[in-house]
Amino acid sequence: MKHESLKQASIHELVAAFAKAAELHGQASIEGAHRAANAQYVKLSAAGRELRTRGEAGRSALTELLQDSNPRVRLWAASHALEFAPVLAEAELERLSQGPASVLRLDAEMTLSEWRAGNLKFTED
């Protein structure tokens, strides 16, 4: 989904784009395909940003992704929900940071650490 089409996308379409990009980002990261991972990061960040601008319905859709079966989707949803649902988001990041040693676990640990240090900010560009 192109950036310009995000404004016209439904919340359902944004959620689907966010989840797909989060999953593909995780796969690319594991494979060491950094350009592909970066491209997916841009897509998921844009979809997450657009969801946050959609008011309660968009924010609710992001928090619903905290129940997704894919841990990468949960990681990114939690990261994007930290500012408006910190209790739910931190709880999911804590769960992920207790998992088996992996890049996912490290990402969850680092996200929590940076959030708690006040270093993570999300802006509505």
Characterise the protein shown here:
It is a single chain. By secondary structure, this protein is mainly alpha-helical. It has one domain: Phosphatidylinositol 3-kinase, accessory domain (PIK) (Serine Threonine Protein Phosphatase 5, Tetratricopeptide repeat, Alpha Horseshoe), CATH 1.25.40.70. The protein is built from seven helices and no strands. The protein has helices at residues 3-6, 11-31, 34-53, 55-64, 71-81, 86-97, 103-116. Helix 3 packs across helix 5 (71-81) and helix 5 (71-81) runs parallel beside helix 7 (103-116). It is globular.
Give a nutshell description of this structure:
By secondary structure, the chain is mainly α. Helices cover 74% and strands 0% of the residues.
The CATH topology annotation reads as Serine Threonine Protein Phosphatase 5, Tetratricopeptide repeat
Total count of domains? 1
The major beta sheet can be summarized as:
none
**Beta-strand fraction estimate:** under 5%
Which CATH-level-2 architecture?
Alpha Horseshoe
In CATH, the homologous superfamily goes by the name: Phosphatidylinositol 3-kinase, accessory domain (PIK)
> Which bin fits the share of residues in helices?
over 70%
Give the overall form.
globular
Low-confidence stretches: none
Secondary-structure class: mainly alpha
- Write down the overall mean pLDDT: 91
Radius of gyration (CA) equals: 14 Å
Number of strands: 0
Q: What separation lies between the terminal Cα atoms?
A: 18 Å
Encode the helix/strand succession as letters. Answer: HHHHHHH
Please give the count of helices: 7
What is the CATH class name?
Answer: Mainly Alpha
